[in-house]
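Q: I'm writing a short explainer about GntR family transcriptional regulator for a general audience and would like to include a description of its predicted shape. Could you first generate the structure from this sequence?
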Amino acid sequence: MITLGQYNTLNILEKTEDGFILTDNDNEKVLCSEQITSGNSEIGTSIEVFVYHDNDGKKVATFKKPKIQLYQFALLQVVALTKVGAFLNWGLDKDLLVPFGEQKDEMAEGKWYVVYLDIDEATNRLFASSYIEKQLQNINITIEAGEEVDLLVYQQTDLGYVVIINNEHKGLVYENEVFTTLNIGDQLKGYVKKVREDNHIDISIQPIGYRKFNDANSNLILTALSKNDGLLPLTDKSSPEEIYSTLGMSKKAFKKAIGFLYKNRAITLEDSGIKLLK
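A: Of course. Here's the predicted structure. Afterward I'll give you a sentence or two in plain language.
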């Protein structure tokens, strides 16, 4: 079965004036009207495409990369308000609908919102919802202290930043443990600091074990590394302008901080930049 809102690996069945007819193993068919610009386009070749509904309600395939997939969260911008709801730009030709009943707060054109992509079982139509917390559960915790996790920042409170963990749980990064700028919608790596008895989850955006560093610049570099998959293309040969643009610190402060982190075995120094040690 061809699945809406997700990537599907389909076979090229035939080429028509409108594009390529693709099929799955159950012989369900879908049209891809775009040109195949890379790879083999011969009949029988398998290709990966994203599937969604066009304006006529028909399943269509695309090589374009959407900003959100089914049962996931993302920060999207409202591009139009209509009688049926708000429409979001999710990177595809047809905008994504947020019905009025799925808007936690009334949406405004031009503003950005963290939303969840769901499917209406009755109509088999994709839609977005800004009711984030009803899609999260902290009853059956699937993570443990020390584990690296994927985060999406979706709310700021007096205590800190509320984050979505692995598209499943809700957690908190405390304000006094943030040494860089976080914005709503930021996606980054984090670490489970503690799972409390009440199933509240404390999250660190720095590797567990390195929080002993009380130097602000060292913590800022660790945070930047965590947000960039453990790599930063900066060295002691980088220009002061490049270092300041990336980290907001002087070259002198940068060299002192990476020296400290290197001595404490938190990072390695490579020709391409600095790398976070697990």
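A: For your explainer, you could say: Residues 251-263 form the longest helix (13 residues).
Q: Perfect, that's easy to follow.
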